[in-house]
Amino acid sequence: MSSEENIAVVVLAAGGSTRLGRPKQLVEFKGKTLLKHTMDEVDDLGFQTKILVLGARQEEIQNKIDPKGFKVVINTDWEQGMASSINVGLKAAIAEEEGLNHVLFLVSDQPFLERANLIKLVHTQLTQRPNATYSQYGRNIGVPAIFAKEAFPLLLNLKGDEGAKKLIYAKEFDYGTETFNKGGFDVDTEEDVRQLKKMEA
Length: 201
What we know:
The chain is α/β, with parallel strands linked by helices. The chain has helices at about 1-5, 35-45, 60, 80-95, 115-130, 150-155, 190-200; strands at about 5-15, 30, 30-35, 50-55, 70-75, 100-105, 130-135, 140-150, 175-180. InterPro entries: MobA-like_NTP_Trfase, Nucleotide-diphossugar_trans. GO terms for molecular function: nucleotidyltransferase activity.
């Protein structure tokens, strides 16, 4: 599937976790870190190109994870916001895989991410051929999300804290969605961590 379509995966994990005060990438849930969980869910889907974008506390994070086929790239401008990580990750994917057709973006703090979510996104993108397919949780849409190459210039033009969701407001930007139950639960604060621990059982 992915080898024919030239899909790259980019995991965005460069943020500073300022509200939490420690790397959310390394918060543990069901015996593994959130970052490892994300990487594991990607791992068995056959993607040729897998990029992991790190930034804040990257040495600490790298010391505690096995990149396992992911090419690690460092966003030295991570403090400028999400757009800088999208830029670094997309450029790395383009450099890594000639003729890239799609990029699937994920973040590292969605504990309820499952392979099935990613398979549905890719299937919708490849069969319906919009500019992008986003995950939908409640009234929100966001990541994981997959983008066709026609959207790459728009992604590279994002600035500051702008995430890829901004593109849905672009003129003539065609997008689809796939439901991701519990996709809206992410880890930003110690209260989120406490809630997560309660859900481990």
